[in-house]
Amino acid sequence: MENEKLSLPNYNIPEDLENAVVITTLDRLYNWGRRSSVWPLMFGLACCAIEMIAAQTARYDMARFGMEVMRPTPRQADMMLVSGTVTKKMLPAIIRLYNQMPEPKYVVAMGACASSGGPFKEGYNVVAGIDKFLPVDVYIPGCPPTPQALIAGMIKLQEKIDRQSIKTVRWYNKEKVDGNYVPMPILGPDLIDVRRNAEYKAAAATKEGA
Amino acid sequence: MATAINTSTTDLVTRFPNFVTLDARTGYTGFIVKKENLVEVATAVRDEFGFDLLTAATAVDYIAENKMEMVYHAYKTTGGAGLIFKVQVERVDPIELPSLINIWPGVDFQEREAWDLYGIKFTGHPDLRRILMWEGFEGHPLRKDWKEPFFEEETKPFKSRWPDGQHTFAENKNPFRDNLNFPKDFDPEKYVVTGEDDLYMSLDRDSRKDEAGNMKTDHIVVNMGPHHPSTHGVLRVAVQLDGETIIGLKPVMGYLHRNHDKIGERNTYLQIIPYTDRLDYFNSMSNNFGYVTTVEKLMKIPVAERAEYIRVIMAELTRVQNHLIFIGMLMNDLGAMYTPSLYAFEERELILDIFEAISGARMMCNYFRFGGVVRDIPDDVLQKLKDLVFERLPAKTDEMERFLNENEVLVARLKGIHVLNADDAIKYSVTGPVLRAAGVPYDLRRADPYSIYDRFDFDVAVRHNGDMMDNYLIRFDEIRQSLRILEQALKQIPGGPINSQKPAYQVRVPAGEAYGRVESPKGELGFYIISNGKPNPYRYHVRPASFVNLTAVESMCIGSKIADFVALLAMLDIVMGELDR
Amino acid sequence: MYGNGILKGLSVTLKRFLDTYTEDISWMLRGKKRYNSDEGIRHRSSKDTKGIFTIQYPEEQLIVPEEMRYIPFLVYDEGADGKKEVLCTSCGICAKVCPPQCIWIVRSNDPNTGRPVPVPTDFYIDMDICMNCGFCAEYCPFDAIKMDHDFEIASYGRSVYNLEKLLKPTSYYAKIRPENYAREEEDRKAKEAAKAAKSAAAAAA
What is the ipTM of this complex? Predict the structure, then answer.
């Protein structure tokens, strides 16, 4: 519904110009441009990365969606495809990459591990889902999602992009909005999420005999 | 298949009557060596008894007996059964053991791992830093008294799941108060991260003194990874460069350390099988194979005849697809972007179709069970498999060879680069194709046959130069040999049941220890399992091929160019899931 | 001559390139559809595949084998009046065998006696933890939980499925896994027949 509203400019073209002029809304143009060239960050973490590579190869060919340009540098990427288990040791690197990505930027959690820690959730070196730190746009369940499932997730992301409006997306807001910049966690005695410093302090203070 | 102590190893007690005893615990084998004499005994094991390849070194925490144990598995590169010797130490900090790095340099990473996860200090180890966790991490997580933040229960299945299982997010429980050990009055704002200093110190940053009066160049340290397009995942390498020449290098790993061992000790025996899929995620079938054979050793159960054949077929198919991908990825790293790997992935897709039809999943097959496999191969799939093995794969391997082997650029990039000679390869405990390319015909399928590999007629692929070119060519040889095995297996496969056991989700595993190993496409994949008769293993350790093979990387690339190093990583065929576990 | 090897290699790529056209033209001459048809997709996944290998998802889809597993679902029988008769007896085996422990089951209790009854009050599977191993379906003694083929389940939030969302009818199961379904039905009928024979024998005796 919302999508339709965005696409209709509420303006009728005079009949004699119908074949010569096409009008659209700025939103629609902007979304069309972005959805057709979502360049992912070339970023494989674990098992899912192999399926991500498979999705790029001949049989599934993500290039059909304008998503084949894997950029090794975050500065040229539009989307971070978190494909695999996010470990505590790796997390600062991921956050740094995310912060370096220019806006608009999207995060897709591919597979169980990236969405919630998956089967390795209980592990001492595993972050229970990248959504604890980054704003995730699409979650793709599966361990690993098959290439087709990945592409289905990408289509879902395109649908999300289609529904966005230039006026409301968070990256053009003047106020500081959560999610545009994520403070770097620290690798201390355990992973330290600096946004929760007060809690750590309180926990350490009440710890008996530590 | 079960390795009894052979006659030459019993000599260890006769040879050192004063400080070596037989391990007399039920279900255990090997020898217990006194800590003070470990180096002496180890030297004798290598030089007098001829066990030149130390494959696995791992620690066990016997918290009830208040002891830590270090277990070493040594083998001969000429084949045959291995020798297990152990050393025990009181479980009182600081736990110290002499390092064996001067006898077998290949023990380097494994000792560092034991330090990291168990807190055993190895005196004499030149570079004892944490390897999987970061420097500054609190505690040694594999100790039995260490608990994770999201710790729910000691063993699976968790009681909170049934019969009153209200869904909760484990991470929403306060992770700070329960198990996290911060120093008293820890203040995150004042915490200074110092972890990297030791790494850079170990790189030896002295700039070279130039006496001849040549222009003195500064050395720079480059960090490749953990996010780098050519490191095959999240490996990080700190390289010290003089111009473009590498003069020092340290791999930094643990960026994909998923606590496989710790989670494995909580799982039941059956539940571990799907986790092993995710070790070396290219080759889930061989991982299953290694784990299942090890547990079968402990359980002392036979494997159904038809299942043995199916297992071999699956393991060899896995090898074919792994080596094809290897070729594609090596080309990618050499700069031949996409085309070779696209061709390789095409064949891989067809093999994965077979896996999917048989096991249900493309990559994470979860296909093996104790005593057999989970389901039979349907006839139409078997026909498809035959078509692939008899017709398509041989032709496509030839095509790949025609496509690449004589390419002048490729030859120039590979020939004579990164030579690893046989002695060094054995010294660094390198296994798999890399060892065979160095001229050591050591293939577990022949050297210590498991399953039914002794029934097939095939040659151990071996090349002699040990350079990159040989490493590349040996993959083609191995594909050919695998196809040979596949052809025989597909012709001989008998009918009958596919599992010798009734399907059961709780298996009884008698107390004892077992070390099982298979020739995975990357090298020797070992599993060391200790059972105490409970539904969950007491100790579960994976000896990954990639991890140990990487020990050799430092000595191999010093003096070569940084661009070749990228190719070297591809050549070692490391995969992070297995390397970091 | 220097460069021979490169030329030899390029001949392979050239052959592959030309194959795309010969293959397409030969299908056209035979009057068959290579794209967007089952036959074409099957051929592209067979040993004879040549030329274009791409399956253009979402317009066409790979033909998945019957055993393919993605996420679990619960089977229910359609009752006479459209009531859903859930096969699950909440015995808890799937929750016990699940390796990542992503299944939560609330067992029902009879309000009068307080005794457990074999129906789940609720059933949760955290799809974002599920590792698609298929153990739950494999060890379920009542054939009540099965693995789905549907992989288009990406969402904008975490997917924790409850009983309502997990339930799918037997007819769906029979559609995606016809051979398994037929085999299980046969087993069930044989068991029932044996039971009936046994009780008949007991009655006669």
Answer: 0.89
Beta bridge partners of A44: A83
Residue B191, helix vs strand vs coil = coil
Residue-range domain boundaries for chain B: 12-123, 260-580
Cβ B195 vs Cβ B134: under 8 Å = yes
Chains that touch A (3 or more CB pairs under 8 A): B, C
Residue linked to tokens 């030579």: B419
For residue B173, which residues of chain A lie inside 8 Å, CB to CB?
Answer: none
Q: Which residue has the tokens 């990387």?
A: B553
HSE-up (13 A, CA, CB side) for residue C11 = 10
Rounded alpha-carbon distances, angstroms, from residue A38 to A31, A78, A153? 11, 6, 13
Q: Which amino acid is at B180?
A: L
pLDDT band at A5 (very low <50, low <70, confident <90, very high): low
Chain B residues 513-572 with a CB less than 8 Å from chain A: none
In this predicted model, which residue has the larger pLDDT, B195 or B279?
B279
- Determine contact, residues A61/C58, Cβ cutoff 8 Å: no
Alpha helices in A61-192 (DSSP H): 91-100, 111-116, 147-162
For the structural domain made of B260-580, what CATH number should be given?
A: 1.10.645.10
Is B521 strand, coil or helix? coil
**Burial C129-145, CB ≥16 within 10 A → b, else e:** bbbbbbbbbbbbeebbb
Contact criterion met (CB < 8 Å) for A197 and B255 = no
Give the residue numbers in C contacting A (CB under 8 Å), as ranges: 53-58, 61-62, 70-71, 99-100, 126-132, 151-159
Chain C residues near residue A61 by CB distance under 8 angstroms: 54, 56
CA–CA separation, B57 vs C128, rounded Å? 36
Burial of B105 (0-12, 13-18, 19+ CB in 10 A): middle
Q: Element (H or E) spanning A107, and its range?
A: strand A106-110
Strands (DSSP E) contained in B171-244 are 220-224, 236-242
Task: Report whether CATH 3.30.460.80 matches the domain B12-123.
Answer: yes
Which chain A residues are within 8 Å of C57, Cβ to Cβ? 60, 148, 151-152
- Min mean pLDDT across A144-148, B384-388, B469-473, C110-114 is at C110-114
What is the pTM assigned to this prediction?
A: 0.89
Locate A109 and state its tokens. 């959690």
Q: What is the Cβ-side half-sphere exposure of residue A177, based on CA atoms within 13 angstroms?
A: 13
Sorted by sequence, the CB contacts under 8 Å of residue B373 that are 6+ apart come out as B307, B310, B311, B314, B367, B498, B499
* pLDDT tens by residue, A151-174: 999 998 988 888 888 777 777 776
| Average pLDDT score over residue span C153-164 | 87
Question: Nearest Cβ partner of A112 from C54, C128, C155?
Answer: C128
Nearest C-alpha neighbor of B19 from the set B85, B75, B84, B66? B85
Q: Could you tell me the two tokens for A183? A: 């403070």
* Distance separating alpha carbons of residues A138 and A39, to the nearest angstrom: 15
Asked if B391 and C47 count as a contact pair (C-beta separation under 8 A), the reply is yes
Torsion of CA B257, B263, B265, B270, to 10 degrees: -120
Give chain C's domains with CATH numbers: 1-63 (no CATH), 72-198 (3.30.70.3270)
Residues 6+ apart with CB under 8 A from A178: A135
Q: Model confidence over B383-413: pLDDT tens digits? A: 999 988 998 999 999 998 888 888 888 888 8
Burial of B151 (0-12, 13-18, 19+ CB in 10 A): middle
Cα A151 to Cα A156, B194, C151, C152, C154: the distances in Å are: 9, 42, 10, 9, 10
What proportion of chain B, given as a percentage, has pLDDT over 90? 13
